[in-house]
Write a structure and sequence with these properties.
Elements: H1 3-13, E1 22-27, E2 30-41, E3 48-50, H2 54-63, E4 73-81, H3 83-93, E5 97-102, H4 114-119, E6 123-124, E7 129-136, E8 139-145, H5 154-161, H6 163-171, E9 175-179, H7 187-198, E10 208-212, H8 221-233, E11 239-245, H9 246-255, H10 265-279, E12 283-287, E13 291-296, E14 299-304, H11 317-330, H12 335-352, H13 358-368
Parallel strand pairs: 1-5, 1-9, 2-7, 5-6, 9-10, 10-11, 11-12
Antiparallel strand pairs: 2-3, 2-4, 7-8, 12-13, 13-14
Helix pairs in contact: 1-12, 1-13, 3-11, 5-6, 7-8, 8-9, 9-10, 11-12, 12-13
Length: about 375
């Protein structure tokens, strides 16, 4: 039996469509403005040739040094964004009861979040950030404006959510996912407050915690090392998973003084193993664009992913991977099945720009057999 068939068999015996699983996701929120850089324009509207790769854009910008340049960004659409909201939306599509706490607009929820806030009974802490996302065949570049994210703090959470209600919310959760540490200046302090003020007061149930730093390159290695040591303390309160894309895994390895691995099976598995071992976490998962690896205390695993050369959308692909991986872990699937389910969740999303249901993921997996 091949690995994809094994994953489908596991899904048949351990169904993920479990509305009794409750998840809490936070803490960011962005309005995403998806744009395409224009190379040559031939007329109005979409009658143009795009700059199709990051390398081409870099060459265009470098050529303007000492001169000047006018770069057109053609607007595609505006949508809900931020690692947390996108991940939460994906978990909703997978059938999980999902609550959101984050930057969706204050005092009024921003229009792009209205339906999402209603569906997640959201607690909105501040104004959202603004991301202008330039998408290319070989990746994406995101320009962010932080706006209200500086206002997010533990005190703000307690003020808006109310302490008793917030503690009860977490007490009833099976998964707590806290993402985009890089963009929220007070996130490390929030983690420490959770460890010292919240988690000791929750019922001692097995709970999953998921963390995604989100491209910590702009933060110092000392900041990264500090937050990693704080994240490792959550393992005393449940099962901790640290999710990293390939670039993030290199930055984390460097901050921990570990050797950086290549983006192939052996390198990814070894790096996942070493990061997990150094931090003593339950699981570390690393996902480049065309494969994924994870490590637990039982070992490490790797799988190739359903790479798409011409994606309809790439912004949010990693967040969908994270949602799929967490959902599979909650259902008790094997590490290999978790990786397959996660890459299929992301693969479906980049091809359709839609968050898939479990049935759509199963159909997608059958096509991979």
């Amino acid at each position: 039996m091949d690995k994809v068939s094994q994953t489908l068999e596991e899904l048949a015996t351990k169904p993920l469509n479990s509305s009794n699983k409750n998840v809490v996701v936070g803490l960011d929120g962005f309005v995403d403005k998806i744009v395409t850089p224009v190379d040559k324009r031939h007329g109005m509207g979409e009658n143009f040739d795009p700059i199709s790769t990051i390398r081409e854009l870099g060459e265009r910008i470098s050529a303007a040094a000492g001169k000047s340049a006018n770069l057109e960004l053609y607007p595609r659409f505006e949508k809900l964004g931020g690692n947390g909201p996108i991940m939460a939306n994906a978990l909703l599509a997978l059938g999980h009861g999902t609550r959101y706490v984050g930057a969706l607009g204050r005092p009024e929820v921003h229009p792009v979040f209205k339906d999402f806030a209603r569906r997640t009974d959201a607690v909105s802490l501040s104004e959202p950030g603004i991301t202008t996302a330039l998408e290319f065949q070989d990746g994406k570049i995101m320009f962010g404006r932080m706006v209200g994210l500086d206002d997010i703090s533990y005190d703000r959470i307690i003020e808006v959510a109310e302490e008793g209600k917030f503690f009860d919310l977490l007490a009833k959760s099976d998964l707590v996912a806290m993402v985009n540490w890089t963009m929220i200046p007070k996130m490390t302090e929030i983690f420490i407050a959770f460890l010292e003020k919240v988690l000791p007061n929750l019922p001692p149930e097995e709970r999953h915690y998921f963390f995604d730093l989100t491209d910590p390159k702009k933060r110092s290695q000392n900041d990264v090392s500090n937050v990693l040591s704080v994240i490792s303390r959550f393992q005393s309160h449940g099962e901790v998973t640290l999710g990293l894309n390939y670039n993030e895994s290199l930055q984390v390895a460097s901050a921990l003084g570990l050797k950086e691995g290549e983006a192939e099976q052996a390198g990814l598995r070894k790096m996942a193993e070493e990061i997990r071992g150094e931090l003593e976490l339950g699981c570390v998962v690393i996902h480049p664009v065309d494969s994924a690896a994870c490590a637990t205390k039982e070992g490490s695993w790797w799988t190739v992913g359903p790479y798409e050369e011409n994606p309809k959308i790439t912004t949010g692909a990693g967040d969908h991977f994270n949602a799929g991986f967490c959902a599979a872990r909650l259902a008790g699937l094997s590490p290999t099945a978790c990786l397959h389910f996660a890459t299929a969740t992301s693969g479906y999303y980049v091809r359709t720009a839609q968050s898939p249901s479990i049935g759509q993921i199963e159909t997608f997996l059958r096509r991979m057999e």
